[in-house]
Recover the amino acids of this structure.
Protein backbone atom coordinates (compact mmCIF):
# COMPACT_ATOMS: atom_id res chain seq x y z
CA UNK A 1 0.00 0.00 0.00
CA UNK A 2 2.85 2.37 0.82
CA UNK A 3 4.36 1.76 -2.61
CA UNK A 4 1.07 2.60 -4.32
CA UNK A 5 0.76 5.89 -2.40
CA UNK A 6 4.40 6.70 -3.06
CA UNK A 7 4.04 6.08 -6.82
CA UNK A 8 0.77 8.04 -6.95
CA UNK A 9 2.35 11.03 -5.20
CA UNK A 10 5.41 10.92 -7.51
CA UNK A 11 3.15 10.84 -10.57
CA UNK A 12 1.05 13.76 -9.34
CA UNK A 13 4.18 15.81 -8.60
CA UNK A 14 5.62 15.06 -12.06
CA UNK A 15 2.29 15.92 -13.67
CA UNK A 16 2.16 19.25 -11.81
CA UNK A 17 5.81 20.05 -12.64
CA UNK A 18 5.20 19.31 -16.31
CA UNK A 19 2.11 21.49 -16.37
CA UNK A 20 3.91 24.35 -14.59
CA UNK A 21 6.70 24.30 -17.18
CA UNK A 22 4.27 24.44 -20.09
CA UNK A 23 2.85 27.77 -18.99
CA UNK A 24 6.17 29.51 -18.38
CA UNK A 25 8.37 30.88 -21.15
CA UNK A 26 11.50 28.91 -21.85
CA UNK A 27 14.83 30.56 -21.20
CA UNK A 28 15.55 30.48 -24.95
CA UNK A 29 12.36 32.44 -25.66
CA UNK A 30 13.25 34.98 -22.97
CA UNK A 31 16.74 35.45 -24.44
CA UNK A 32 15.33 35.83 -27.97
CA UNK A 33 12.81 38.43 -26.80
CA UNK A 34 15.54 40.38 -25.02
CA UNK A 35 17.74 40.26 -28.11
CA UNK A 36 14.90 41.55 -30.28
CA UNK A 37 14.26 44.39 -27.83
CA UNK A 38 17.94 45.29 -27.75
CA UNK A 39 18.18 45.23 -31.55
CA UNK A 40 15.22 47.60 -31.74
CA UNK A 41 17.03 50.03 -29.47
CA UNK A 42 20.40 49.70 -31.22
CA UNK A 43 22.09 52.88 -32.32
CA UNK A 44 23.09 52.03 -35.89
CA UNK A 45 24.76 55.41 -36.31
CA UNK A 46 27.65 54.23 -34.12
CA UNK A 47 28.16 51.18 -36.31
CA UNK A 48 27.58 52.53 -39.80
CA UNK A 49 28.49 56.21 -39.42
CA UNK A 50 31.71 56.05 -37.39
CA UNK A 51 33.41 59.36 -36.81
CA UNK A 52 30.40 61.35 -38.00
CA UNK A 53 28.74 63.52 -35.38
CA UNK A 54 25.04 62.73 -35.70
CA UNK A 55 22.74 64.86 -33.56
CA UNK A 56 20.17 63.37 -31.21
CA UNK A 57 17.36 64.60 -33.48
CA UNK A 58 18.95 62.94 -36.53
CA UNK A 59 19.66 59.57 -34.86
CA UNK A 60 16.11 58.13 -34.90
CA UNK A 61 15.64 59.05 -38.56
CA UNK A 62 19.05 57.70 -39.58
CA UNK A 63 18.57 54.50 -37.58
CA UNK A 64 15.20 53.95 -39.25
CA UNK A 65 16.68 54.50 -42.72
CA UNK A 66 19.58 52.12 -42.06
CA UNK A 67 17.26 49.44 -40.69
CA UNK A 68 14.91 49.77 -43.67
CA UNK A 69 17.84 49.60 -46.08
CA UNK A 70 19.28 46.49 -44.43
CA UNK A 71 15.85 44.81 -44.49
CA UNK A 72 15.50 45.61 -48.20
CA UNK A 73 18.99 44.19 -48.83
CA UNK A 74 18.06 41.00 -46.95
CA UNK A 75 14.98 40.63 -49.13
CA UNK A 76 17.08 41.25 -52.22
CA UNK A 77 19.59 38.60 -51.12
CA UNK A 78 16.75 36.13 -50.61
CA UNK A 79 15.46 36.91 -54.11
CA UNK A 80 18.99 36.48 -55.46
CA UNK A 81 19.03 32.90 -54.15
CA UNK A 82 15.98 32.17 -56.30
CA UNK A 83 17.14 34.14 -59.33
CA UNK A 84 20.94 34.59 -59.53
CA UNK A 85 22.11 38.00 -60.71
CA UNK A 86 19.20 39.97 -59.28
CA UNK A 87 21.31 41.41 -56.45
CA UNK A 88 24.00 42.76 -58.76
CA UNK A 89 21.36 44.42 -60.94
CA UNK A 90 19.20 45.96 -58.22
CA UNK A 91 21.67 46.77 -55.43
CA UNK A 92 23.05 49.98 -57.01
CA UNK A 93 19.56 51.44 -57.38
CA UNK A 94 18.71 50.37 -53.83
CA UNK A 95 21.86 52.06 -52.51
CA UNK A 96 21.15 55.25 -54.49
CA UNK A 97 17.66 55.42 -53.01
CA UNK A 98 19.12 54.97 -49.52
CA UNK A 99 21.75 57.62 -50.21
CA UNK A 100 19.08 60.09 -51.38
CA UNK A 101 16.96 59.52 -48.25
CA UNK A 102 20.02 59.80 -46.02
CA UNK A 103 21.04 63.08 -47.68
CA UNK A 104 17.65 64.53 -46.68
CA UNK A 105 18.48 63.88 -43.00
CA UNK A 106 22.24 64.53 -42.85
CA UNK A 107 24.03 67.78 -43.63
CA UNK A 108 26.25 68.06 -46.70
CA UNK A 109 29.42 67.74 -44.58
CA UNK A 110 28.06 64.65 -42.80
CA UNK A 111 27.04 63.10 -46.10
CA UNK A 112 30.42 63.69 -47.72
CA UNK A 113 32.13 62.16 -44.65
CA UNK A 114 29.85 59.14 -44.96
CA UNK A 115 30.63 58.67 -48.65
CA UNK A 116 34.35 59.11 -47.96
CA UNK A 117 34.20 56.23 -45.47
CA UNK A 118 33.41 53.72 -48.23
CA UNK A 119 35.65 50.68 -47.70
CA UNK A 120 37.73 49.12 -50.44
CA UNK A 121 36.11 46.23 -52.30
CA UNK A 122 38.51 43.69 -50.78
CA UNK A 123 37.89 44.70 -47.13
CA UNK A 124 35.82 41.79 -45.87
CA UNK A 125 35.89 42.74 -42.16
CA UNK A 126 34.66 46.33 -42.42
CA UNK A 127 31.06 46.72 -41.19
CA UNK A 128 30.42 49.48 -43.71
CA UNK A 129 30.74 46.88 -46.44
CA UNK A 130 27.18 45.78 -45.69
CA UNK A 131 25.95 49.26 -46.55
CA UNK A 132 28.03 50.04 -49.64
CA UNK A 133 28.17 46.62 -51.32
Amino acid sequence: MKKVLFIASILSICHYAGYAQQNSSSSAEIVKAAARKKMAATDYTRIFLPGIAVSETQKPQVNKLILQFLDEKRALNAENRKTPGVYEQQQPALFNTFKTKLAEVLSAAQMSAFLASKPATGEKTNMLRSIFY
About this structure: The mean pLDDT is 79. Residues 72 and 94 are 8 Å apart (CA to CA). The chain is about 75% helix and 0% strand.
